[in-house]
Amino acid sequence: MEHVRLSELSRSFLTNESIILWWSVANLILVYLTKDEEAMLEGEYGEGKQIAMSLLVDVGEFFEAEKLIDIASAHISGVSYLTGGDGLIDQLDLFVSKGAKVAVPSTLNPCGMDRDHYQDLYIDLDFATKQFRILDNFERMDVATTCSCTPYDFSHLLTKGQHVAWAESSAVTFANSFFGARTNKEDSLTVLSAAITGKTPYYGFHLEEERIPNVAVDVKAIIDEYSDYSILGEIVGKAFSKHAFPFGAIPVFKGLSNPRPQDLKALGAALASFGTQLFHVEGITPEQELIAKASIQDQISVTEEDIISTYEKFRPTAEPDIAVIGCPNANLEEIAAVTKLVKGRTLKKNKAFWLFSSSAQKAIADKSGYLKVLNEAGVRFVTDTCPEVFKYDKDKFKIILTNSIKAAHYIPAPSLNNIPTYLLPLRECVEEMYQ
Ligand code: F3S
User: Fold this and answer.
1) Residue 196: exposed, middle, or buried by beta-carbon count in 10 A (0-12, 13-18, 19+)?
2) Going by CA atoms, what residue is nearest to atom 2 of ligand 1?
3) What is the phi/psi pair of residue 253, to 5°?
4) Coil vs helix vs strand at 280
5) Which of 7, 208, 213, 317, by CA, is between 20 and 30 Å from 92?
6) Confidence at residue 413, expressed as pLDDT on a 0 to 100 scale
7) pLDDT, position 29
8) Measured in angstroms, how far is the CA atom of residue 265 from the centroid of ligand 1?
9) pLDDT at residue 6 above 90?
10) Is the Cβ atom of 75 under 6 angstroms away from ligand 1?
11) pLDDT at residue 56 above 80?
């Protein structure tokens, strides 16, 4: 038998029979809970789960979810001390003190430093101590401290229609679009609550009707490089940002030929910067049946001139002293591409070239021989963190170069790093920094 959760005031005087009447009169939002979910809410599984369940029910009520659903995995954001500060530590301390543990396989987004090499990457001891405390708290809750924004590269492979709760915007867009899995863009607290309970409210992208394309893009340009996809996402995201769709613009692309997974990752990360959490590509992405049901409210064409003029806006106007690649974190093919371009070359004086990826990818790169070549060419392989949430030494790095539009948006002001950042295709980044 299903149970009903109402606001505390309503619970105190309504009987089950009167609920339907009350709902129709006062238009209250009801979230149906199973017995097990009700028990969590009553604290029978401990205070940690109780807090988490209470928050999810409130979110469900806000979004008018009819019920909660089970999730297969969670990917948790809110990990870097740079962006979370002491408030993040307090929040995690609370859950740990209440004995909270995750109920489903759960991975972590990047933190604010490379755990193994923070001393030689200009991270001060106070920052490192607090970052380790955050990671320790996650470990106590049985979260896998993978510290990467691309869990799908080494864990959490998803199936079409599978419900998950993920929080990192680029990963959400990739999970929804590339795999056809179903997740809303969770925030750091709702995703942690979902991980602890194994549940999420049934609304938004969990419903098929919310996944239907509402805008269309005709790509008339040759889109080839990873950074081309990033630029395409910038153009499309900006063009449709004027609309107030309840769950953002859901573009359907035509004219893209044979994008690689990392290309769609770059496209999704750029679109996510404008609030898009799902896109479809004709003939490529898994939910082709939804393209047939499209309800198009706006459409654009993207030409070669659009791509060139957008590149121009991000072209360096000052000399960069560091190039950062790996936003989202680089997969093995991207690592191989950098390796090929830098092999046997020497960095220009006072230049740095950093490649951001997960420890898991680093281990594979090591076994594959890429790491040795990268080390010899002076590339710093940075793990556990990302170009945005890393705390740069501003005396050393004043101008940044990247091949990712998301990094180009989030590293400059008003971010905490606040460093001017420019964009070039990968090959040109290498030419800029190497002799
Ligand atoms: Fe990932 Fe950081 Fe970019 S979380 S998408 S590398 S800004």
Assistant:
1) buried
2) 386
3) -100, 135
4) strand
5) 7
6) 80
7) 53
8) 11
9) no
10) no
11) yes
